[in-house]
Amino acid sequence: MRIIPISEGSYTIDKTKVFVPFDQQSEQLNSRPVGSLLVEIQPFVIITEKDVILLDTGLGYLDANGTPELHNNLMKLGINPSQVTKVLMSHLHKDHAGGITIKPHQTEERFISFPYATYYIQQREFDYAMEHGTSSYTSSDFELLEAFSKVVWLLEDEGWIDDYIFYQLTGGHCLFHQVFWIHEADEITFFGGDVAPQLQQMKSKFVAKYDYDGKMCMELRQRWWQEGQEKKWTFLFYHDIQHPVWRIS
Q1: Which of 180, 26, 219, 204 is CA-nearest to residue 88?
Q2: Within 10 Å of residue 234's Cβ, how many Cβ atoms?
Q3: Judging by DSSP bridges, how do beta strands 86-88 and 52-55 pair with one another?
Q4: Which of 115, 160, 240, 248 is the most buried if burial means most Cβ atoms within 10 Å?
Q5: Cβ(121)–Cβ(153) under 8 Å?
Q6: What's the rounded Cα separation, in Å, for the pair 82 and 66?
Q7: What angle do CA 22, 35, 215 make, to 5 degrees?
């Protein structure tokens, strides 16, 4: 199993829910509004014997030529976007779902970013996001999924995908957030999305105000951290600047 973090850079975010680029070399966090959080935006590619898997899709920003930054980052790694076979979505907040579709410059039309891949979406998360849009959701990023033929709508609280990827509905960060375990040979890789976004949160009793149920998230992190130690998981942290991949040895 090959694991590749795909960093889209560091950003700060405050109560406005706007992601503002942050240069760690030249800026100070205290120059940003009070309460600003510093996060990395970091989808992951996992290459297994069966698939090229993309875990969440980033902010969906385009370069000056109208090419998605996510596509550029994949191609720098020698991966053509058409080679992605599965897109696993933890939830549909805009910093995770922005790259589900593309809206090229000077056009109003949107396209699916990975048309040859199968998207795995929690049905209840999609329905909630479409019906109760908040500042955390940008429905135009993902509404095309409703008519896209290659979507597997996950309806259960947990289950298996192709007998080697296990998903589980957790809630916590948002009502219908889900997480994934990818099993191959004797390896287990865990992606906790925004319930387990950073290494430091796994090691402390941290309750985040930005979570729908911060106490639940804290309890889940503690449980996963203990189980991961025992079973030697590899953890993937979407918002961790220093430690995107953490292997228990």
Answers
A1: 180
A2: 19
A3: parallel
A4: 240
A5: yes
A6: 17
A7: 115
**112: its two tokens:** 């699916």
∠ at Cα 194 (185, 27), nearest 5°? 115
- Entry field: residues in the chain: 249
pLDDT tens digits along 28-73: 666 666 667 888 999 999 999 999 999 999 999 999 888 999 999 9
Residue 153, burial from CB neighbour count under 10 angstroms (0-12, 13-18, 19+):
middle
Q: pLDDT digits over 132-179, tens only?
A: 877 899 999 999 999 999 999 999 999 999 999 999 999 999 999 999
Longest dimension (CA), the chain: 52
- Cβ proximity of 55 and 90 under 8 Å: yes
CB 11 within 8 A of CB 22: yes
- Cα-Cα-Cα-Cα dihedral of 8, 6, 112, 174, to 10°? -80
Report the alpha-carbon distance of residue 1 to residue 181 in Å, rounded: 13
Residue labelled with tokens 């560091």: 10
Q: Tell me if 136 sits within 8 A of 162, measured CB to CB.
A: no
The domains located in the chain, with CATH, are 2-247 (3.60.15.10)
Q: 3-state DSSP call for residue 111?
A: strand
* Helix intervals (H) in the chain: 69-76, 94-97, 123-131, 199-202, 214-231
What is the rounded CA–CA span in Å between residue 63 and residue 138? 20
CA atoms of 74 and 130, how far apart (whole Å): 29
Distance of CA 113 to the CA centre of its chain: 15
